[in-house]
Amino acid sequence: MTGEPSETEKTGRVTDRAAGGSATDAAAAPVLLERSGNGIAVVTLNRADRRNAMTTAMTAAWAATMGQLRADPTVRAVVVTGSGSAFCAGGDLEWLQVAPDTSVAELRTRMIGFYRTWLSVRDLEVPTIAAVNGAAVGAGLALALACDIRYVAADAPLSAPFTSLGLHPGMATTWLLPEVAGLAVARDLLLTGRVVRGEEAVGLGLASQCLPGDAVLAAARTAAERVAAAAPVATRLTKLALAGGGHADVETALRWEALAQAVTMAGADLQEGLAAQRERRSPRFPGP
Questions:
Q1: Same domain, 152 and 256
Q2: Domain limits at 124?
Q3: Does residue 92 contact residue 54 with C-beta atoms inside 8 Å?
Q4: DSSP character for 99?
Q5: Are 157 and 23 members of one domain?
């Protein structure tokens, strides 16, 4: 997590493999974006030498990547993973080393921009899946929690050791952890800073499944394929219905579902789904 960044890294460039980026570009770019013809996009944090810590360049590249995905109507599911042995080691040390005379107001402005950039993955209308191939620490854990679904490597350490560094938790961890796993788990992990792995992470509700490290990305891709094969309008509306912990009460849920289901009933996707069921074939949903 130390050392002078290269000129390529300073640009914050994202390399899109589907757009024909060269092997040299891919090796240097801090974020890789790979798109497939079935609507699946895979975003890879690509600084294995820094355990995919969130450097300034990677943060800029992440913002550019999220912008590309938001603007692409063909994307139906997004997988986020890390290169090398880590998912994301959290904020780079450069974010913690500040001048002694830096004011609280300056630091607040800096950090809230950083948080919002990384949490912009939550703004994507399509489902997002974290393939946690290795360590997810601090803000790196928050990034995984910000995704809709998580698959973790059995030996991947997950932790939020903010207070042991003298820091209050950041990047909405005090909201994301309770949303994903409940308040009791959030208190446990945030106050003790302890590390959890594999089956315990699944048992606590932090992940859907744990697998051998080399199988995590494949499992996430398989889940993304299931998502991408479903009706895109219904999928996006379902994600929106569940945003922010779901509806405030059952009446709000009923009102939302009466409208959202009516929207999908009036669309072409339902007719395709019914026809596919009658003809005993896989549906080919046209989407919006």
A1: no
A2: 7-229
A3: yes
A4: -
A5: yes
d(CA 141, CA 206): 10
Rounded distance between C-alpha atoms, residue 29 and residue 37, angstroms: 23
pLDDT above 60: residue 103: yes
User: What percentage of the chain reaches a pLDDT higher than 70?
Assistant: 90
Q: Provide the residue type at 22 as one letter.
A: S
- Closest of 127, 30, 123 to residue 82, by C-alpha: 30
CA 113 to chain centre: 17
Parallel/antiparallel/unpaired status of strands 31-35 and 40-45 = antiparallel
- Start-to-end CA distance of the chain, whole Å, equals 44
Q: Residue 48 in 3-state DSSP?
A: helix
User: Does a structural domain hold residue 36?
Assistant: yes
In this structure, are 52 and 13 located in the same domain?
yes
Residues 56 and 80 reside in one and the same domain: yes
Q: Do 31 and 57 reside in the same domain of the chain? A: yes
Asked if 67 and 174 sit in the same domain, the reply is: yes
Contact 220, 177 (CB under 8 A): no
Give the mean pLDDT of the chain: 89
> d(Cα 30, Cα 220) in Å, to the nearest integer?
21
Structure tokens at 235: 């999928």
pLDDT in tens, 177-211: 999 999 999 999 999 999 999 999 999 999 999 99
> Which residues of the chain form beta strands (DSSP E)?
14-16, 31-35, 40-45, 77-82, 86-88, 128-132, 135-137, 149-153, 158-159, 209-211
Placement of tokens 């509806």 in the chain: 247
- Of the candidates 131, 132, 127, 133, which has an alpha carbon nearest to the alpha carbon of residue 148? 127
User: Is the distance from CB of 217 to CB of 133 less than 8 angstroms?
Assistant: yes
DSSP 4: P
Quick check: is 161 in a domain?
Answer: yes
